[in-house]
Design goal:
Helices cover 69% and strands 0% of the residues. By secondary structure, the chain is mainly alpha-helical.
């Protein structure tokens, strides 16, 4: 019985070491992909500036907040702008004609 406990303990320790090694490897890989802190700060500032500009565009009553009604109104207008052939759908050709660019928001949280 004591021998069996030793085997289980050794297996648990080895498993824990593998898990810790995998976690460390993941952290190291993520850190390699991260820009330096100064660049992270400038990206964060740019995203915040873009978000503020969007809020100003959407905030029709200028109260500093965007209601669902203001949001939906803005999105309706954007859809109509993107639907260049006015068929009620936005497809790749419509996007191409609008010359829409991926935003910095697409990378948020990644």
């Amino acid at each position: 019985m004591l021998e069996r406990r030793k085997i289980v303990l050794v297996v648990l320790v080895i498993s824990a070491l593998f898990i810790v090694g995998a976690l460390i490897g993941t952290v190291v890989a993520q850190e390699k992909d991260m820009p330096p802190p100064s660049e992270q700060r400038s990206v964060a500032i740019a995203r915040e500036k873009m978000a503020r500009q969007l809020l100003v565009l959407m905030d029709r009553n200028k109260d500093g907040k965007v209601s669902k009604e203001e949001w939906m109104s803005f999105m309706d207008a954007e859809f109509d702008r993107l639907d260049t052939n006015h068929d009620g759908f936005v497809d790749a050709k419509d996007m191409e004609k609008s010359q829409i660019q991926p935003s910095h928001f697409a990378k948020a949280g990644k």
